[in-house]
Each structure stands twice: as structure tokens, then as C-alpha cells.
Amino acid sequence: MTTDPTTATTPAPASKRPLVWLAIVSLAPFVASFVLYFWLEPSGRMNYGTLVSQRILPDVALTQLDGTPLEHRLRGKWSLIVVDSAACAPSCAQKLYATRQARTMQGKERDRVERLWLSPATRRPRQSLGPRIPIS
Fold it and tell me: How many CB atoms lie within 10 A of CB 82?
């Protein structure tokens, strides 16, 4: 029995259809997100918070308790400001705690936020406030 090379069956060329379907399935989410984002904008948006209104401080010479000027610490930083008396009632202590927590939540970017407690009195705050006092 001899085999004739002209009559031998050659394998059929591989179909490219599975490769095309794989490409379509892989690219479909990217194309869909692009179309939805740029052409089919939603009619309304849902925001889960509000931005804090920005206020510019008047030109007042701010000094720390030791008398050194404060401007160099505030340049280029966001400032969380609490305005209260040096006696610091429980509501004041709660505000100071909230500013500390807000700064801590920034993680590695916490140095971009500065806490500031403005008090019109020249008295030192009570020591029982401990680390809540934004003096560093």
C-alpha cells in the first residue's frame, strides 16, 4: 500500500473567527464606556457631599502662642480653622477633634492640610485638651 502524496489530506487552515470574537469581547467594555461617557451623558448626577465654601482671611498678623509669625506655615496649604475662645467649651473641643480627624484621614497627604485655632484672647489654652490643640 502506497500513499500518493497528491491525494493525502492536508489540514484545513485554522479559522480566525475565535480570535475575532475574543478581540470583540475584550474591547467591548472599553468602547461602551467611551461611548457612554462622552456621547450619552446622564440627565442628572448624584453627588454624595457638598464642597466647603472657601473664605479668604483678612490681612491680620497671625502669631503663635510664643509670638512667632504664622504665615510661613500656611502658605500653599489647606487650612482647617476653628474660631473659639481660649477657655474652649466642650463644643470647641469637639471641633478641634473633628479637625484632627479630618487631617488624619488624608493619609500620606496630611502635611498638605494645616489645622488652625484662632482665639482672640492672649491666654494659653487649658492643658487638658492635650493633642487636640493644633499647635506644632
Answer: 18
